[in-house]
Amino acid sequence: MLKPRVDLKEFEEYGFKKCKSPYGKSNCYYLCVARGTKMIFVSPVLYEIIEWEDDDPRIHKRPNYRYRDIRTALDITYDLIKADMIIRV
User: What contacts 89, CB < 8 A, 6 or more positions away?
Assistant: First the structure.
């Protein structure tokens, strides 16, 4: 299991967006990845890669993603591990 090591506000620098309420009130963030149609979900106790569904209640109507980004969810996860932002518990 992966867990964030830094303040979740720092994930905004990597393109993460705060979830809509009530998840946003719990300080949760997400990032939709067009390649592979995955969503990366980060909460104060969890970092998870899940399938991206349009009707997910955590995502805004216009989700934060870039079609031109060639990275996959695993590439982004690797970058975050190298930046020491997430750890394995």
Answer: 1, 2, 3
